[in-house]
Amino acid sequence: MLFVIWALLILIGLLFPKSKIVTGLMFLFMVVSICFRTQGADYLIYRNEYMWSVSQMFSDVHYAGYLYIEHIAHNIGIEFEQWLVVIGLISTAFMYLGIRRLTPNVNAVLALFLIYPFSHEAVQVRTYLANSLFIFALPLVLKEPVANTPNTHGKLKKLEKQIPRYILFYVLAVIACTFHFE
Q1: Backbone phi, then psi, for 18, in 5-degree steps?
Q2: What predicted TM-score, i.e. pTM, was given to this entire model?
Q3: Which listed residue, of 29, 45, 71, 179, carries a Cα 20 to 30 Å from 120's Cα?
Q4: Beta carbons within 10 angstroms of residue 120's beta carbon
Q5: Of 77, 113, 117, 85, whose CA–CA distance to 98 is shortest?
Q6: Residues 74, 54: contact at Cβ < 8 Å?
């Protein structure tokens, strides 16, 4: 049944690339698929990693940023199943917001994402969070290029206004790398 829903969402996402109802259904499908799974290739690894996060040292892992937010979640009493919901919602929201700022055809992009790499991202929690944060940051550097102004002074003024966006992009990219970098 899950396969049928997945295939239908891809089809209607491509047929109705701007429908908010379809966007909501696709978002819901992605969140439920990621947040409420109880098995899978890496489920037990992520569960054990979460349980051990309080005793791990940041220098022992390649994902210190992810370990840091696991520490916080674990210390405030969030159980692993709740952690999956929180991280799945945040990751999917980052993905959606980044895509929405890049194109009006959100559903077409989400449909292609469901074809691939969604099956991979649904299992790889750290990868999904890192990729989603990076996609969220992309519009900072891909939107509003320097105008084709013959006036060099005008281009410099435009660049000066864009510098904070470029800095924020690099900060978010570095943070994403702390979630998954191997």
Answers
A1: -120, 5
A2: 0.90
A3: 71
A4: 12
A5: 113
A6: yes
